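Figure 2 data, in text form.
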Amino acid sequence: MQQLTLSQTIENVQDLIDSGNGDPGRLYHILECLKNNRSLYHSDQKYLEKKLDSLITLEEKEQPSGESDVLPKIQELINTGNGDPGRLQHIYDMISNNKTLYHSDISYLESKLNEPVPPKPQETVAIVEPKQTETVTVTEPKQKEFVPPPPKPAPETRPSSKGTMPKGWNSLPDSAEVEKISKDIRSEEEKIEKQKLISSEIDAHRSKLTQLMSHRKEYEQKVTQEKATLEAQIKEERLKIESQTKLSEEIITQKEELDKVKKERAKIIKNINAEKTKISKELAQQKRQLVQAQLEQEKIEKQVETEQTLLAKMIEEQKSRLLEQASIANEIKSKQADLEKTKKDYEFIVSQVNKEKAKFAESEKLKNLIKSQESDLIKAKEERLNLINTISKEKELITKKANEEKERLKSQENLAKQLKKEEKNYESLKKKREKTEQQIKLKNQKLKEKQQKLKKQIAAKDKKLKSLGTKSSTKKPTKKPSKKTTKKKTTKKITLKKKSS
């Protein structure tokens, strides 16, 4: 596995946060610890190594060449519990801060390491009381005070007397004893000086203990403060995680709303397509009906033209026959007036047919409008597809896109309102078409009634003509009507019956 430095690990953690790979709250906490050169928890270090698939080596401060070998050994002694941890931590801090050690600390360290400690160039064997500012958690144990042994009793000296000496007195042993006593006095003085030095050391150690106790209390206060800050940071991280979970839940709900909107949009499109098919079918039926009406109108026009030609022929024949009879000519004039009335009625019918054609042209215009609206709907579909593609590409900005989708939903609601308006317009057009069909039916009925009236009038006029013919035959012999004229009359009757049917 590859080993990463501190700067590389910081960059990789930032990349993990940007890509969203892992727990963002935990990664932010790890990144802050790395940036502030704080030690990581063992679980966090393992988590980071799993994410990066590589080992992490945190950069340490450069140490002096003479002390680089001693400091890790002292750290091993503290970790293994071999010795007094408070004293070892104090020695470690003194060496790391390039401060002089006491002779007793050096001897203690050498006894623990079983090797000599290299002294510093400024270090001296003399005992010095240094001013300390570092903080140590564990207090140094008190050293046992050295109790000096009781002074030996001085040998008894016999009082010197002037004059004669007592029996058995030797001068030489007295001088030897005096020398021994002086030597003992000197040794006792040296011991007293040593005890004074030891007492001064003990006083120094006591002052040092008081300082260490005060530093320990300060360190404990700092530790409590750091604990409080860490607990506050943990609470903040938990709140952030809760907010992130809420955001993820909101994103899921927004996705569900988007799916529902898509389904509703698909249903609306299906309904629109069904309505389009219905409209197209109804328009085709209307076209067929209009074509049939046009064909019927053309047939009626042809029949009216044939009848007009036949009537003109009949009038010419009757004129040739009734030149002699003035009464017959007056009746023919009245028939002509009736024919003019029929022409006026026919022109009125033609004008109504033209109006119906104009209405049909308007319906074609409405068809064109519907086609244009269909093309607009297709464009809107394409735009929606493009928007969906952009949404799939920008997953990280779902919140913003959700707001945009809401705005689009509003636009879709506007489109739905427009579609409802179009449906209303379509229903109004349906009603108008039904009204026009009813009008056409009424007009057809009126035409049929007029045709029946014309048939009746023609039959009455034929009867009158026949009666007039019989009267004229009594007065003058008249020519018999030819077979052609009788055939024409029969054909007229047959066509009128077909029309009425």
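Caption note: Residues 369 and 398 are 38 Å apart (CA to CA).
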